[in-house]
Amino acid sequence: KQGQITPTELCRKCLSRIQRTKFLNAYITVSEEVALKQAEESEKRYKNGRSLGDLDGIPVAVKDNFSTSGIETTCASNMLKGYIPPFNATVVQKLLDQGALLLGKTNLDEFAMGSGSTDGAFGPVKNPWSFSKQYREQKREQRRPKLHREREGSSGGSAAAVSALTCFAALGSDTGGSTRNPAAHCGLVGFKPSYGLVSRHGLIPLVNSMDVPGILTRCVDDTAIVLGVLAGHDPKDSTTVQDPVKPFTLPSLTDVSKLCIGIPKEYLVPELSSEIRSLWSKAADLFESAGAKVIEVSLPHTSYSIVCYHVLCTSEVASNMARFDGLEYGHRCDVSVSTEAMYAATRREGFNDVVRGRILSGNFFLLKENYENYFIKAQKVRRLIANDFVNVFNSGVDILLTPTTLSEAVPFLEFIKEDNRTRSAQDDIFTQAVNMAGLPAVSVPAALSAQGLPVGLQFIGRAFCDQKLLTVARWFEQQVQFPVLQLQGLMDDCSSAFENEKLASVSLKQ
Amino acid sequence: MAARAVWLAFRGGLGRRQAFSTKANVQVKARVAERTSPVTHALRFIPQGSGRITVEVIEHLERLALVDFGSREAVARLEKAVAFADRLREVDTDGVEPMESVLEDRCLYLRSDNVAEGNCAEELLQNSHRVMEEYFVAPPGNISLPKLVNKNPSYTAKW
C-alpha cells in the first residue's frame, strides 16, 4: 500500500515461491493465470486510488474443499477429480470481492477426514518446518537428516502454504480441529470461528452441525482482518446467524487484570508431551503475573468427546457422502447394468478406505436397531459436553487456555503406523470438544520444541465472542514473540525481498 | 481447597511426571479401567468383541451405503469402531435431550419465497459425464444389487 511493491510483483514472487516449495506438496491446483489477472486488476485499482480494502492485492490460498468457480475442486479425492464448480463458495466470493488474489487450492486429507493430511489422493503434505534451519540445527546429530514430518490436521496444505510464505492467509475448514491442529504444527495462528458466524455455503460438507471455515495466518491481526471480511449472515446458508457483524480492529490489550483464564483439568492427559505441559504451565504463569485470574475448571465429559464425535461424524458423513453418485458430477465408472450398480462401483473407485470406512460406520450407527443406542445417545452426550462449557463460562471464566496438540509434529513413518481413525481419536483430543459446542477457538504458536518444531496453545472463548478471544490471543502472541520460519536454500534468493517488505513477519496492515 | 492443591501440583515441578497426575485423571482412569485393560488410558480402546458384525449386517450396510467393504480389514475396522462407540454407554444421559444443533435456541432463517437465482441448467450439465439434451443419463433403475451368495463373501466381487 505504501507503494513498496505492486500487487503483480507480489503475486509473481509468491507464485515463484510456490514453485520452489513444490516438494511440500501443499498445493493441488495453482491458479497462476487467474491470480495474475486479479493482480493486474488490483494494480489498476491502486493506481486509481480505489482499492477495495485491506485485502486488495493480497495473495491467499483456499483449501480444496471450498468450491471455486472455474478452478478444479477435488477435496483430494478421486471422486471429484476434474470437477469444476460453477460457483464460488460464499467465503471465497467475499475474499475475491475484497480484491484478494487466489493463488490456488491447497492439499488436504481426502474430504477433510483425518488429522495428518496424509490420506489425500494427491499424497501427503510435508511440514515446512522439517526443512527449516531451526530444525536442521537440532537434528545435526541424527543419522537420518532427511526424515520429513507431517501430522498437520487436515488443512495441512493451507498451513504449509502460509507457513512457507507462499501466501498471506489461507482458508481451511475445521470440523474436529482441522484448522488448529496444522496451525500448531506449522507455527501459525489457526482460528475457528463460532459456528454460525461464517457461511458454509460452498464448503463441501463433512459434518453439517460442526463444520466451520477456518482461517490460517501468520499473526492474529491478519486473522482479525480476514474474519471481518468473512463473517456475517448469508442468505444461502441458513445456519448463519442474523446478528449484524462489522469488520473490527483488535484493541490493544494492556490490562489483563480483569481477565479470568480457565485451565480445564481434564485436558491434562498422560499422553501430553512434557514440553507442551511445561509450556502450558508457563503460559498460565504469564497471565497470572500480568494480573489475570487463572483458575482451574472442570469439563467432566471431556473424555467422551472423541467417542461422541466419532459417532456423530460418521453418521453425518454417511449422509453427506450420499450425494456422490457419479451422475451429476464427479467420477463415474463405466458400469451400466443398473443405477445401483453404477453408484456402487463409482463410489468404490472414487473414495479411499478412510472415507468408505466412515460411511459404513455411519450407516451402522444409523440402522434402526442402533439409532437410539448410538446416534441419539451421542447427541445427548453432545449436549452434556456443550453444557460443560456453558457452565464454565457462566461461572465467570472468560477464556480457556489449553494445549492444541499432544506433541510436536511426528515423523511421517511413525504417523502412518496407526490407522486414520485411531490417529484422529488421539490427536483431536484437545480441539474436538470445541466443535461440538460450536465455540470459537484459536491456536497461537507458543514456542519451538527442543527439536526445533513449532508448538501451539489454544484459547477457547464464549460463543460469538470471537473479537474478545482474538484480543486475548493477540496479547499472548505479543508476549511470546514466536520465531520466524527460516527455510534453508530459499533464504538467499528471497533475502533481499524480505528486507524490503518484511515478508517474514509481515502483517496485512502494511 | 482440594482444587487449589491440585492446581499447585499442576503448576509446580516441571520435571516430575507424578506431580502432574491430577485427581481428575485418576477418576477418569478409574472409570475407563472398568471397561479396558489397566495399561490403557482414556484415549485408547480395546476391542471388546461385542457383537461380531454378521454377514447379514455386512450385506445390509453395503446395500444401504452403496459402498463395499473391500477387505476383511475393513470389517475388522468397523468392529473396532463399534466397540469404541460402545463406550458411550458409560455416560448417564437420563433426562437429557439430544442436541441436534448448537444454534437450537435461535429461529431458523427463512427467506421470502421469491426466485433469486437459477437458469443455470447448461452450467450444471457440463459437469456430468453423460448427458443427452437436458437430461442426465443414468443406467436402468429399479434393479437391485445382486445378493452375496456365499456365506463368506468375496470382497473383490465385481458388480
From TrEMBL, chain A:
BP terms from Gene Ontology: glutaminyl-tRNAGln biosynthesis via transamidation; mitochondrial translation
InterPro entries, sorted: Amidase (IPR000120), Amidase_dom (IPR023631), AS_sf (IPR036928), GatA (IPR004412)
Keywords from the named record: ATP-binding, Ligase, Mitochondrion, Nucleotide-binding, Protein biosynthesis
Family as reported in the entry's similarity comment: Belongs to the amidase family. GatA subfamily.
Amidase domain residues: 9-470
Catalytic function, reaction form: L-glutamyl-tRNA(Gln) + L-glutamine + ATP + H2O = L-glutaminyl-tRNA(Gln) + L-glutamate + ADP + phosphate + H(+)
EC number: 6.3.5.7
Superkingdom of origin organism: Eukaryota
Ribonucleoprotein as UniProt keyword: no
Stretch list, region Disordered: 123-157
Name of the protein in question: Glutamyl-tRNA(Gln) amidotransferase subunit A, mitochondrial
One annotated GO molecular function: ATP binding
Subunit structure comment from the entry: Subunit of the heterotrimeric GatCAB amidotransferase (AdT) complex, composed of A (QRSL1), B (GATB) and C (GATC) subunits.
Active site: K63, S154, S178
The protein's role, per its UniProt record: Allows the formation of correctly charged Gln-tRNA(Gln) through the transamidation of misacylated Glu-tRNA(Gln) in the mitochondria. The reaction takes place in the presence of glutamine and ATP through an activated gamma-phospho-Glu-tRNA(Gln).
Intracellular or extracellular location(s): Mitochondrion
GO cellular component terms given for this protein: glutamyl-tRNA(Gln) amidotransferase complex; mitochondrion
Species whose genome carries this gene: Chinchilla lanigera (Long-tailed chinchilla)
Automatic annotation (TrEMBL), chain B:
Domain of life: Eukaryota
Keyword Mitochondrion annotated: yes
Family recorded in the similarity comment: Belongs to the GatC family.
Keywords: ATP-binding, Ligase, Mitochondrion, Nucleotide-binding, Protein biosynthesis
Full protein name: Glutamyl-tRNA(Gln) amidotransferase subunit C, mitochondrial
Catalytic activity as recorded in UniProt: L-glutamyl-tRNA(Gln) + L-glutamine + ATP + H2O = L-glutaminyl-tRNA(Gln) + L-glutamate + ADP + phosphate + H(+)
NCBIfam families, per database record: gatC
Species of provenance: Chinchilla lanigera (Long-tailed chinchilla)
Taxonomic classification: Eukaryota, Metazoa, Chordata, Craniata, Vertebrata
Principal subcellular localization: mitochondrion
Alphabetized PANTHER family for the sequence: GLUTAMYL-TRNA(GLN) AMIDOTRANSFERASE SUBUNIT C, MITOCHONDRIAL (PTHR15004:SF0)
GO biological process: glutaminyl-tRNAGln biosynthesis via transamidation; mitochondrial translation; regulation of translational fidelity
Coiled coil ranges: none
Localization of this protein: Mitochondrion
Enzyme Commission numbers on file: 6.3.5.-
GO molecular function, one term: glutaminyl-tRNA synthase (glutamine-hydrolyzing) activity
Chain's role: Allows the formation of correctly charged Gln-tRNA(Gln) through the transamidation of misacylated Glu-tRNA(Gln) in the mitochondria. The reaction takes place in the presence of glutamine and ATP through an activated gamma-phospho-Glu-tRNA(Gln).
